[in-house]
From TrEMBL:
It comes from SAR92 clade bacterium H455. Keywords: Oxidoreductase. This is SDR family oxidoreductase. SUPFAM superfamilies: NAD(P)-binding Rossmann-fold domains (SSF51735). The keyword Membrane does not apply. Belongs to the short-chain dehydrogenases/reductases (SDR) family. Pfam families: adh_short_C2. InterPro entries: NAD(P)-bd_dom_sf, Sc_DH/Rdtase_CS, SDR_fam. Signal peptide: none annotated. The lineage of its organism: Bacteria, Pseudomonadati, Pseudomonadota, Gammaproteobacteria, Cellvibrionales.
Length: 253
């Protein structure tokens, strides 16, 4: 198996992509720490997959003390962190910049950018001291394109690509690789929320718009994103760092 006995820490593990990633990493032999804002969804996965393969922890990724404790809990439970998947994120409210309160921007940036920075800050020293590792940051197709009505989200996903590129240069000397995975529209709760937000804002049928400009003509599935995460976490991607890996059906082409 590609990740036999490797330890993987995944934030946002209770979401659609997060749960798919947990299953894929466990199927490849990894021990996985599932981190999310609560443990309702993640504990169900732990019970299903078995405590010998995974455990869960509650964390607010925007809170430095909680992120530090999440890292300690992972090392104390499984002994290491070989792969870190910084996947936690929120979509925020849909609407034009002129009509959206600044508190929406602050909340989205706190989770989607500060949360990733804190994860890097506390995880990378663990990897450095162990001789290396792989960091995978979930960005988005929104991280390489503009879009009306989603400025806060797009801004946050552009920002984490910048974080990734800086981190990749800083830690390559320690054998740590850092990349982003950039999903397009994927069948998840978040995407349903975005669709509803566009409809409420009178901005049209989001799904129809996306599928019309996606060469493969459909939404992606969470497993398709998880497959890329497993590739980047494994030795199959041993010469990949500083990369932006699009998994968007050609939408950004």
């Amino acid at each position: 198996m590609k990740l036999d006995n490797k330890v993987v820490l995944i934030t946002g593990a209770g979401g659609g992509i997060g749960q798919a990633a947990v299953r894929k990493f466990v199927s490849e032999g990894a021990k996985v720490m599932l981190a999310d804002i609560g443990t309702d969804e993640t504990q169900v996965l732990v019970d299903e997959l078995g405590s010998e393969h995974c455990a869960c922890v509650a964390v607010d990724v925007a809170d430095a003390a909680q992120v530090e404790e999440m890292v300690h809990a992972t090392v104390n439970t499984f002994g290491a962190i070989d792969v870190f998947v910084a996947n936690a994120g929120i979509e925020g409210k849909i609407g034009p910049i002129m009509d959206t309160d600044v508190s929406n921007l602050d909340q989205v940036l706190a989770v989607n950018v500060r949360g990733v920075w804190l994860g890097l800050h506390y995880v990378m020293p663990v990897m450095r001291d162990a001789g290396g590792g792989s960091v995978i940051i979930t960005s988005s197709g929104a991280g390489v394109q503009g879009s009306p009505n989603t400025a806060a989200y797009n801004t946050s996903k552009h920002a984490v690509i910048g974080l990734m590129r800086c981190a990749a240069l800083e830690v390559a000397q320690f054998g740590i690789r850092v990349n982003t995975v950039n999903p397009g529209a994927v069948e998840t709760r978040m995407m349903e929320s975005i669709e509803d937000g566009f409809a409420e804002a009178g901005a049209g049928d989001f799904r129809t718009m996306v599928e019309a400009v996606t060469p493969l003509g459909r939404y992606g599935q969470p497993d398709e994103i998880a497959n890329m995460m497993v590739f980047l976490g494994s030795d199959d991607s041993s010469y990949c760092t500083g990369g932006v890996f699009m998994v968007d059906g050609g939408n950004s082409t």
